[in-house]
Amino acid sequence: FVPEQAHSAAGWTAILALVEAGMGVALVPRMAARERREDVVMRVLETDRPRRHVVAAVRHGAESGPAVARVLAALTETARSFPETVQQN
User: Fold this and answer.
1) How many angstroms separate the CA atoms of 37 and 89, rounded?
2) 3-state secondary structure of 78
3) How many degrees, rounded to 5, is the angle at CA 32 between CA 26 and CA 20?
4) Cβ of 73: how many Cβ atoms within 10 Å?
5) 38: helix, coil or strand?
6) For a FRET experiment, which of 42, 45, 50, 63 has its CA 20 to 30 Å from that of 31?
């Protein structure tokens, strides 16, 4: 499959709007898949799913401070709370 046209958008809301308008198909991260749209169906890929690696950006020299450590711990805990799969419509 080679698409005849390619579209790009800066945000997942716009990308899902393109899909909803019948303009194509998109690989969507789990976080964006939570935004439900009436005419968009989410399907879990049957193959090895792509993974997304997320990092935290911290100002140089501030990474060892206690406040930053607490924020990084909270971000890590939140990231671990995401389910492994997305429910299918």
Assistant:
1) 10
2) helix
3) 50
4) 10
5) coil
6) 63
- What is the value of pTM for the model shown? 0.52
- Containing domain of residue 73, as a range? 12-80
Closest CA to 27 of 11, 13, 15, 10: 15
Q: How many structural domains compose the chain?
A: 1
Residue type for position 27: L
pLDDT tens profile 22-78: 888 888 887 788 888 889 998 887 777 667 677 888 988 888 899 999 998 888 888
Question: DSSP string of the chain?
Answer: ---S-----SSHHHHHHHHHTTS------HHHHTS--TT------SSSPP---------TTTTTSHHHHHHHHHHHHHHHTS-SSPPP-
Q: Is residue 85 part of a domain?
A: no
Does residue 45 sit within a domain?
yes
